[in-house]
Amino acid sequence: MNILLKKPGTFIFLDENMEMHRFSDYDDVPEDLNICNVICFLPDIPLPPHTIQQHELINSWTDELLRLMEKIKNGN
């Protein structure tokens, strides 16, 4: 996947202090953010036709959300 491909959308999380963190690009979410709850996970899906890179990104969103949910379930 092209690492330069933007990952826009609306991503809102609560941390362990119940502080809300809002991001408009998924790559801006810090890896060390202690996410306790996913409030909004809404990636922007471009209108077709899609490039191969866009298809790869679109197909990865479900796996990424499941990864986040597993991380939350296991206490980060």
Word description of this protein:
The chain is an alpha+beta fold. It has one domain (8-73). 29% of the residues lie in helices and 30% in strands. It has one helix spanning 52-73; strands at 8-15, 20-25, 35-43. A 3-stranded antiparallel sheet has the order 2-1-3, with helices on one face. The chain is elongated and about 40 Å long. The model has no long low-confidence stretch (mean pLDDT 91).
Mind sketching the topology for me?
Layout: E1 8-15, E2 20-25, E3 35-43, H1 52-73
Antiparallel strand pairs: 1-2, 1-3
Write a concise synopsis of the structure shown.
With about 80 residues, the protein is of the alpha+beta class. The chain is built from one helix and three strands; from the N terminus they run E-E-E-H. A three-stranded antiparallel beta sheet has the order 2-1-3, with helices on one face.
The rounded distance between the terminal residues' Cα atoms is 26 Å
What is the residue-averaged pLDDT? 91
Could you give the count of β-strands? 3
Helix and strand content put the structural class at alpha+beta
Radius of gyration: 13 Å
Uncertain runs are none
How much strand? 25-35%
Element string (H = helix, E = strand) = EEEH
Number of helices: 1
| Main β sheet profile | 3 strands, antiparallel
